[in-house]
Design brief:
Helix content is 67%, strand content 0%. By secondary structure, it is mainly alpha-helical. It has two domains: 3-59, 434 Repressor (Amino-terminal Domain) (Orthogonal Bundle), CATH 1.10.260; 76-120, no CATH class. It starts with a helix and ends in a 5-residue tail after the last helix.
Length: 125
């Protein structure tokens, strides 16, 4: 998926008159939300999580819509388990963001082992 999917979704959800209100609810500026909505800015994973929570969507879905996740590069089931547990903890969000951005197979495997261990031992609660 690419950024256009998120842009299209937001255009369908947010009319021009709702921009400021929605931006306030998301904790971002109306200008930045407008740029995301128009496809000229790619929101980071934390903003994607806010958008997902605001609209009751899966955080992984919004990350994929924004172009952050290539399903071939990330274990989506593991990422989904982690997303459910991290909540709003910024340190754990940063850990998942790092995992999502890893492009090498060896790096992904090392990060996967770490995330699996955290999930298994209950470190992500």
């Amino acid at each position: 998926m690419d950024m256009n999917n998120l842009s299209k979704f937001l255009k369908n959800q947010i009319g021009p008159r709702q921009l400021r209100k929605t931006a306030g609810e998301l904790g971002i500026s109306a200008e930045y939300l407008s740029r995301i909505r128009n496809g000229s800015a790619q929101p980071g994973p934390r903003i994607c999580a806010s958008i997902a929570d605001h609209y009751g969507l899966s955080r992984l879905l919004v990350l994929r819509m924004a172009g952050h996740i290539d399903p071939g590069n990330v274990d989506l089931e593991l990422a989904d388990q982690v997303m459910e547990r991290i909540g709003t903890d910024p340190d754990l969000q940063a850990l998942l963001e790092a995992y999502i951005k890893i492009r090498t197979p060896a790096g992904r495997q090392q990060a996967r082992v770490l995330l699996e261990a955290l999930v298994e031992k209950g470190g992500l609660q």
